[in-house]
Design a protein that fits this description.
This protein has 9 helices and no strands. The protein is mainly α and 226 residues long. The termini are far apart. This is HEPN AbiU2-like domain-containing protein.
Length: 226
């Protein structure tokens, strides 16, 4: 009789696994933040130049939608319950009895080293913020789109997202929560302050300044044409 492979969902998540998945989750969170920052920056530029609608604005609108799609794809990668690498796996691990002690030992040995008592205090506070951010996620809204697993996540289409009635407000709320999850996990495991939300702010400013100048420059050129 052929032995069935174990269901990975039922296997306990270990601290070693969390350490291995953290860089990937952080990278995906940064990508999502960067993409949504570009989206929101372009959106602000288009709104500010609403009385001007040259070709540049149409290009900006197309690029804006592509950036929103990229943000959605990356966010789903971080929260995909069908994948072992996800913040859902991290959440399950952090709820275990061993988590506080195991993570505190890592934090204590990170640069600069600290006592285990100080590490435990920092980790406990960070875990509380992680749990708070995780519990703000609206999984009902998130579940409006069917679960996409690893390779399939790249094939989400815009019509599917619209049909699922996922709003930009839903997307930004999820993004903000995921940025906190990634930042707190990085802090707990390495002692480093590295927040994906910084990518959002920087990308927003960059996209806003670039596209506003492009739209206004083309509009001004048209206006000046006899």
């Amino acid at each position: 009789m052929k032995k069935e492979a174990p269901n990975t969902d039922e296997l306990p998540v270990t601290i070693e696994e969390v350490q291995r998945m953290e860089p990937q989750l952080h990278a995906w969170s940064e990508m999502a933040a960067r993409a949504y920052g570009f989206y929101s920056g372009i959106n602000e530029a288009i709104k500010k130049s609403a009385d001007k609608w040259p070709t540049a604005a149409h290009h900006a609108s197309d690029y804006r939608q592509e950036m929103a799609m990229m943000a959605i794809i990356r966010l789903f990668a971080t929260m995909d319950r069908g994948s072992r690498i996800s913040f859902q796996s991290v959440y399950k691990y952090l709820q275990t009895n061993a988590a506080t002690d195991e993570v505190s030992k890592l934090f204590a040995t990170a640069e600069p080293p600290s006592s285990i008592e100080a590490a435990r205090g920092a980790v406990t506070a960070s875990m509380a913020r992680f749990f708070e951010a995780y519990r703000t996620i609206d999984f009902k809204a998130f579940g409006r789109i069917q679960s996409f697993r690893n390779g399939q996540v790249a094939h989400i289409s815009w019509p599917e997202i619209k049909a699922a009635k996922v709003t930009y407000s839903d997307l930004e709320t999820l993004l903000r929560s995921v940025c906190v999850l990634a930042g707190e996990l990085k802090l707990m495991l390495t002692g480093c302050n590295d927040w994906p939300s910084d990518e959002f702010d920087g990308s927003h400013r960059q996209a806003y300044q670039f596209w506003l100048k492009a739209i206004e420059a083309e509009a001004a050129g048209r206006t000046a044409t006899p």
